[in-house]
Amino acid sequence: MRLMLKAVLLSVFFWGLVPAYGYSQTYKYKCDSNIDEHGIKSQCPINLPDTYWTFANDKSLLFESDGKGFRKQNIQAMPGFPAPPAATYRFEKTHQGTHVYVSRPSGMGSEAFTSFMYFNSDYSKYQRKLQMHKHRTEYIRVDELASPSEDIPIF
Question: CA 74, CA 83: separation in Å to the nearest integer?
């Protein structure tokens, strides 16, 4: 009887935690500007689509998604093979009010670049920096919050 009571309490505790870790929020951002490797700012192309980003696990993970919070697939797939998911960014630190996320892809050719996301304190604007290691080149895109979608639970 005592063992059964422990099992019931443990399962209630475990299932109580599941919704807390399965919750995410999706936000829609629009391009504000581009900054080239020389620091020159330019307007975004007119036909550039808005971007959706989903924060998961209490904002410790970030990935590009559709408006419903489903992870986007990487469009560079080999013929006959399913496309791998888009990059996942992991929260690294907050420094002077800026939230820093980093993606270090793994696999063939992944050592060629690292991608960073720098969000302002209220997550209303970010800079996405792609750092190409071989050529020591950086590309920066600045986006701002367009409108938040509804909070989306992920199960």
Answer: 6
Residue with tokens 């550039």: 48
Tell me if residue 7 falls in helix, strand or coil: helix
What tens digit of pLDDT does each residue of 5-25 get?
555 444 544 444 444 446 789
User: Going from the N-terminus, what domains does the chain have, and what CATH number goes with each?
Assistant: 24-153 (2.40.160)
pLDDT tens digits along 43-88: 888 888 888 999 999 999 999 999 899 888 766 545 555 555 578 8
Quote the tokens at residue 56: 């998961």
Rounded Cα gap, residues 80 and 101, in angstroms = 32
Residue 1 neighbours by CB under 8 Å, 6+ apart:
none
